[in-house]
Amino acid sequence: MSRTPYPLHTALSLAASGVPVLPLRRGKVPFGNCPACTGNACGGRPNMKTPGPCQCPGICHAWAAATTDPAVLTSPAWTDAWRRAVAVAYHPGGAGLTVVDLDDADAIDWARTALPMTRTVRTTRGEHWIYQGTMTSHNAVRPGVDIKSAMSYARYLGTGTGALTDLPDTVRELAVKEASAVRPVPRSVSVPAQSGGGWCPHRTPVFLERGIAMAEQRITAARSSIHATVYATFLAVLSTHGRCGCLTDTHVNRLFIAAQSKGETARHCTDAWNNARTTLGL
Q: 0.90 cut: is pTM over it?
């Protein structure tokens, strides 16, 4: 991923036009929660306009931290992030926009026949089609197609070409009709038992069932920072059950299904699971 020159300058220009922005670090992802906000222990930020119960001045709540306030963007809490930022992202829903993210040539061909033309921005692998209007964000509504609007972020890649047109019912209907139909099937992930095959203190069915149920509830109850919540939940489950062989593919798939119900893709689930295992040395 190429680095955006002078990301703060770009961010201030977008903010001046009413587009809420935030920095992205390497990997095209937002900066993670600060220690005080890990796992949304602070209560999180319910939307980009109000701080909610969290008073953290930093940029650690992804799309919900996006802002148009130049004083915030240039504040000391954001300064280090901008120095390390490789790109600028924006909250489409906060700007009254919806981005149809077309990830490959097949997706673009589909859009050209199924959707009205609008402002188009080239991406690394495909195109962003940007419409005027907001809706709920959905991942993987069809192969190679994500919808980014409310409670989501998109990388800023330039002004693009063409005039903005109104968000068509076709896109709204696509999210409703196809999101469940093409929802990726959760991938089975085997967790190795403890080396040496010792007795497992967590094999009590009630204890394990309660833990998995609480993890599912934590994910499905999340209203923001979904990526961070999924990762933190996977980390918590693995820290308790990852070394003793309690977890089965059925347990892991339940967690993946919960994450996918919040819009995560199977790939994101697998990445989060593997990253949590790596963090714990599993």
A: no
